Structures are given as structure tokens and as C-alpha cells.
From TrEMBL:
Highest taxon above the source species: Eukaryota
Highest classification ranks of the organism: Eukaryota, Metazoa, Ecdysozoa, Arthropoda, Hexapoda
Organism, as annotated: Sipha flava (yellow sugarcane aphid)
Entry keyword annotation includes Isomerase: yes
Gene Ontology CC entries for this record: mitochondrion; peroxisome
Protein name: Delta(3,5)-Delta(2,4)-dienoyl-CoA isomerase, mitochondrial
Functional note: Isomerization of 3-trans,5-cis-dienoyl-CoA to 2-trans,4-trans-dienoyl-CoA.
Family: Belongs to the enoyl-CoA hydratase/isomerase family.
Length: 302
């Protein structure tokens, strides 16, 4: 059969476009998150249920997991800012959503069946935010106004936290009759380094403000407004994104591994990795750049 030139041309264009599209990492659509890339290699993930004070419902928990798993794989992403739309960062778990769990439990009479439902629920929520820690790209939380309950669990998984002057935090779980179960008890006391201060916050469920958060080391810096918070945090993320992805991703992995192991185990872990990674082109490029005072060496995507 004869194919005219224009048909062949269109066909070739189509193949070329398909191959470009397959090289670009498309960003999935999310219902409860807003995602964009305001700077090269920097992604901004925003909690996006502003009408509900960004209460974390099941779709949001699941989407957080999915999103950070995707960004872990995305070679166009080297640093991530986690922020929120609207008046509040987050009011924690969606209290209406949790009531539907009660309905599901009511379907079972037997304790073994009930605990199976609850365990699956808790483990799923844990895994969703642990995805932030498992994501090799550094995650910087930019927190404004209220960060309550599940919100503290969420930001405790990030690598760095920054907030506005009006930010306040509350480990509210004991006030609603539960022990926090998705990471605050495990991670936050290690972040702030004082078990006594941490226990006070966890047992009393009292609110603490931005200056206390800075004093106890929970946040690195406090900014006057949400605009200056985002501007500064984006700049820090961009600075990270300009560095070698090999160096940055391995640093995150080593820091988290070392937090959970002895010093010797941490040293062995990084020796095991660096005997491989020091042979990467990034090491040569960065060393050359340092020697020639090149401020912005170009690193391939990873
Ligand atoms: C496996 C378990 C995993 C995790 C467990 C985590 C535990 C926790 O998260 S404990 C913390 C639970 N959260 C709370 O107790 C906070 C409750 N909310 C508030 O205190 C207030 O809403 C506020 C955040 C201080 C804001 O107050 P205000 O400015 O007066 O706004 P509201 O009118 O109260 O809220 C606006 C709108 O949002 C809805 N909403 C707020 N928070 C939640 C929530 N946590 N769950 C569900 N919905 C929430 C509120 O109902 C309003 O909705 P309307 O439709 O406009 O009425």
C-alpha cells in the first residue's frame, strides 16, 4: 500500500513525541495534594484541603504515600518542599473519616477480626508517611499556623522543618484518648534530643509555639510570614538541588540509617556504599568543580 509523504511525516512526528513523552516523568493527578515544580529539580507538595483545615482523610494519607514513592523515582526531582494551602498547615487526622472506621469495626463481633481491621489501618497510615523517609530526596517542611496531631507525625518524617512566627504545634493524641501511633513517639524525641521535654509535650498535649519549636530544635528557622517562609525554604531546597544527587541521596540514607544504628554500624554502612559511589562521575565532577572554583557543576539526572 502506498503511504503519502505527509502520512509518513506525521507518523515519524508521532513516534518522536511518544519517545519524548516517555523520557519525561509525568506527575500523577492528586485529589488532596497540589504538586508543582517552582524551581529546577525542586518540587513543592502542598496539602490541599483548605476548606477542611487540611484535615488528613484516607485519600490524603494514601496520596502522600503514593506521591513520595513517585518522587523517590523521579529523576527530575532532587529536593522537595512540603507545605500547605489555606489558613492552616493541618488539623491532623480527619475526625469524621475516623468515624467510618468505627462502622467497619461494628461489622465484626469477634476481637480477632476487629484487630485485623485496625492493624491494617494503622500500618497503612504508618507506611504512607514513612514514604517520606524512604524517599531519597531531602524533604523540607514549611509549616504555617496549626500543625496538630497527625501533622506532627507527618513533619517528624521530614529531613528539615521551618515555620512561620504564627505556627503552633500540638501532640493532641492523648487529649483524644489515644497514643500517637504513626511516628511522633518514635521520631520526634530523637529530633529534639530531650526525652524530658518530649514527654511533657506528649503527656500534656499542650500547644507549643514557633519560638519554643525553635528552642527545642524541632524547627531550624522561624520566618515572619508564609511568603518569606516559602521563599527561604525554596532557596534552601534549590541549593540542595544544585549539588550532586549521588552525594545528597546517599547522605539522606546514611543519616537515617545512622539514627537507627550504632556508630560502628553507621560507619560500616557508609563504607559499603561509598566503595561503590566514590567511583561515580559525580565525585569526579564535583572534585573538578571545587578545584577550578566552578560554582555550579552540572550533574546528570538520577
Ligand atoms: C492511625 C491514626 C493516625 C493518626 C492519628 C492522628 C491523631 C490526630 O491527628 S489528633 C488531632 C485531631 N485534630 C483535632 O483535634 C483538631 C480539630 N480541629 C480544630 O481544632 C479546629 O478545626 C482548628 C484546626 C483549630 C481550626 O479552627 P477554626 O478556624 O475555628 O475552623 P473550623 O471551623 O473548626 O474548621 C474548618 C473546617 O474544617 C473542618 N475540620 C477541621 N479540623 C478537622 C479535623 N481534624 N477533621 C475533620 N474536619 C476538620 C471543620 O469541621 C470545618 O469544616 P466545615 O465543613 O466548614 O464545618
Amino acid at each position: 500500500m502506498f503511504l503519502g509523504n505527509s502520512v509518513i511525516h506525521k507518523g515519524l512526528l508521532c513516534v518522536r513525541n511518544l519517545s519524548i513523552a516517555s523520557k519525561m516523568h509525568s506527575i500523577a493527578q492528586y485529589q488532596t495534594l497540589k504538586i508543582d515544580s517552582p524551581k529546577e529539580f525542586v518540587f513543592n507538595v502542598q496539602l490541599n484541603r483548605p476548606d477542611k483545615a487540611n484535615a488528613m482523610n484516607t485519600p490524603m494519607w494514601l496520596e502522600i504515600g503514593k506521591c513520595f514513592n513517585e518522587l523517590h523515582e523521579n529523576p527530575d526531582c532532587r529536593a522537595i518542599v512540603l507545605s500547605a494551602e489555606g489558613k492552616y498547615f493541618t488539623s491532623g487526622i480527619d475526625l469524621f473519616d475516623i468515624m467510618t472506621l468505627g462502622e467497619e469495626l461494628a461489622n465484626h463481633d469477634d476481637i480477632a477480626r476487629k484487630i485485623k481491621v485496625l492493624r491494617k489501618f494503622i500500618k497503612t497510615y504508618q507506611d504512607c508517611i514513612t514514604a517520606i523517609e524512604k524517599c531519597d530526596k531531602p524533604v523540607l517542611a514549611a509549616i504555617h499556623n496549626a500543625c496538630i496531631g497527625g501533622g506532627v507525625d507527618l513533619v517528624s518524617t521530614t529531613d528539615m522543618r521551618y515555620c512561620t512566627k504564627d505556627a503552633w504545634f500540638q501532640l493532641k493524641e492523648t487529649e483524644i484518648g489515644m497514643a500517637a501511633d504513626v511516628g511522633t513517639l518514635q521520631r520526634m524525641q530523637k529530633i529534639i534530643g530531650s526525652t524530658s521535654t518530649f514527654n511533657e509535650l506528649a503527656f500534656t498535649a499542650r500547644k507549643f509555639n514557633s519560638s519554643e519549636a525553635k528552642n527545642i530544635g524541632f524547627v531550624s528557622q522561624v520566618y515572619d510570614t508564609k511568603e518569606s517562609l516559602l521563599e527561604n525554604v525554596m532557596n534552601i531546597a534549590s541549593d540542595i538541588a544544585n549539588k550532586s544527587p549521588v552525594g545528597i541521596q546517599m547522605t539522606k540514607r546514611s543519616v537515617i540509617y545512622s539514627r537507627d544504628h550504632t556508630v560502628q554500624e553507621g560507619l560500616d554502612h557508609i563504607a559499603d556504599w561509598n566503595q561503590i559511589l566514590l567511583q561515580s562521575e559525580d565525585f569526579i565532577k564535583a572534585a573538578m568543580a571545587a578545584a577550578t572554583k566552578d560554582k555550579k557543576p552540572t550533574f546528570s539526572k538520577l
